[in-house]
Amino acid sequence: MANRYLPFGYIIIDGEICINEPEAELIRAIFELYAKGKSYNELAERCMLTGIRYNPDSDKWNKNMVKRIIENDKYTGKNGYPKIIDEKLYNKANKTRLSKNVKQEPEKSDLDKFIRLHSECPDCSSPLKRQHQGHDEKTWTAYKCTNPVCPAKSVKENRLYQLITEMTNLLIQNLDLANEPTITEIPDDTLADDKANEIYIKMAGEYDKDDVLKSLYELAKLKFQSSTITDMSAVTDRIKKELCKYGNCEKVPLPLMHKIVSKFYVGGDNELKMKLINGKIITRSVI
Q1: Are 257 and 239 in contact (CB under 8 A)?
Q2: Residue pair 143/172 in contact by the 8 Å Cβ criterion
Q3: Contact 249, 166 (CB under 8 A)
Q4: What HEC string does 16-52 produce?
C-alpha cells in the first residue's frame, strides 16, 4: 500500500502544496458530521460511498483514517498548508473527540451500567440510554428514554446521582421508609363469582364432565389470583439489615444498590422513583 507524504486533502502542483478540492469537501463534511455526533466507523462507511480514496491503491476506508483527519490541525492553515476548515470547527470536532476518549472511572462506569440495567421510562417502559446533550461549550451527560417518540424528559447524570444518594441517605436515617407497601385495595372477586354461577347453572341440568372440570380449574385459578398476598416482611428485614451497615453517604453506594434496589423509573413527571426489592417505591422530585 502506498504511503501518503502529504495529508489527505492536499496535492503538489508546480512544486507547491495546493488544496485537492474533492478531498477537501469530504474533509469538511467529516469534521461537521463528527462534531454532530457521527462515529469514526459511520464516517468511514460514508467516505467509501463517495468513491474518493484515502490511499491511491485501495478504495477502503477505516476508522483510523477518519481519526487521523480529525486530529490533523494542518487543515486549519498551520505549518504552511492551505486552509481547508476554520479553527472553530476543528476545535469543536476535537472537543467531541476528547470527550469520547475520556474513560469513566471504573466505579462510575459500574454505576452507569447498573442504572441502565435497572432503569426504565415510567411513561412507556422503554430502557434508558446515557448520552451527551447541549451544544458547543454547554454540554452535559444525561439519561434519556430510548423511545424516540416518548415525551419523557431526560435527567442530567449529576442530578440523577445526587437524587439516588439523597434517597439512600433517607432510608439509612429512617429504616421504616423501607417498609413494604400496605395493601389498601380489596381484591375484586367479580370474575370468580361469575365463574362459580356459570358452573352452578351447568350442573343444574345435564352437563359435560370435562367442561365442568375445566371451569372448576378456571375458578380455582381466579380464586388464587384474587386472594394471594405475598408476605414481604422477610425481604424488608433484609433491606433494613443492609441499610444498617452504612452511615451517611457522599456518593451512590453501589454495593448497597445491588442488594436493595429492584428498579429506577427515570424521567416521568419530573420525578425519580426508586423501587426496592420488596416493592416499596421511594420518590423524589427531579426539579
Answers
A1: no
A2: no
A3: no
A4: EEEECHHHHHHHHHHHHHHHCCCCHHHHHHHHHHHCC
Domain edge (last residue) among 101, 135, 158: 101
Q: How does residue 184 score in pLDDT terms, banded at 50, 70 and 90? A: very low
Does residue 157 fall inside a structural domain?
Answer: yes
Q: Are residues 198 and 177 in the same domain?
A: no
CB distance 10 to 82 below 8 Å: yes
Give the DSSP per-residue string, 191-237.
HHHHHHHHHHHHHHS---HHHHHHHHHHHHHHHHHHH-----HHHHH
Could you give the CA distance from residue 198 to residue 194 in angstroms, rounded to a whole number? Answer: 6
* 76 and 15 together in one domain: yes
DSSP annotation of 55 reads: B
Do residue 68 and residue 143 come from a single domain?
Answer: no
Separation of alpha carbons 205 and 72, rounded Å: 91
| In-domain check, residue 159 | yes
**For helices 21-35 and 40-50, what crossing angle results, to 10°?**
150
Q: Same domain, yes or no, for 32 and 164?
A: no
The domain of 85 spans 10-101
pTM of the predicted structure, to 2 decimals: 0.51
Contact at 8 Å (CB) between 53 and 59?
yes
Q: What is the pLDDT of residues 218-256, one digit of tens each?
A: 767 666 555 545 678 899 999 999 999 998 898 899 999
